[in-house]
TrEMBL record:
Name this protein carries in UniProt: Acyl carrier protein
Domain Carrier intervals: 3-78
Pfam families the UniProt entry points to: PP-binding
Source taxon at top rank: Bacteria
Source species of the chain: Kitasatospora cathayae
Signal peptide: none
């Protein structure tokens, strides 16, 4: 499921937030994707809607996370091992 989850989160970034797909690699820091604070809130909201997991307590450190860390955070919230 991790690959499916990774693809789904990648889809949110590309389709909804218009991030260049080539930039989304596991070790990219989210703040380097030029997501402003509004986009970060939108990302959190879309993840919550799609996966039923609330990651808003992590909003303040979201920009410093890598894409892989974001996937792990969502994975732990949905209980996927």
């Amino acid at each position: 499921m991790t690959d499916d989850l990774s693809l789904a989160i990648r889809g949110i970034l590309v389709d909804d937030l218009e991030v260049d797909a080539d930039q989304i690699v596991p070790d990219v820091q989210l703040d380097s994707l030029e997501l402003d604070s509004l986009a970060a809130v939108e990302l959190i909201t879309l993840i919550q809607e799609q996966f039923g997991v609330d990651i808003s307590p992590e909003e303040s450190r979201l920009g410093k996370m890598t894409f892989a860390e974001l996937v792990q955070l969502v994975q732990s919230g949905v209980g996927v091992a």
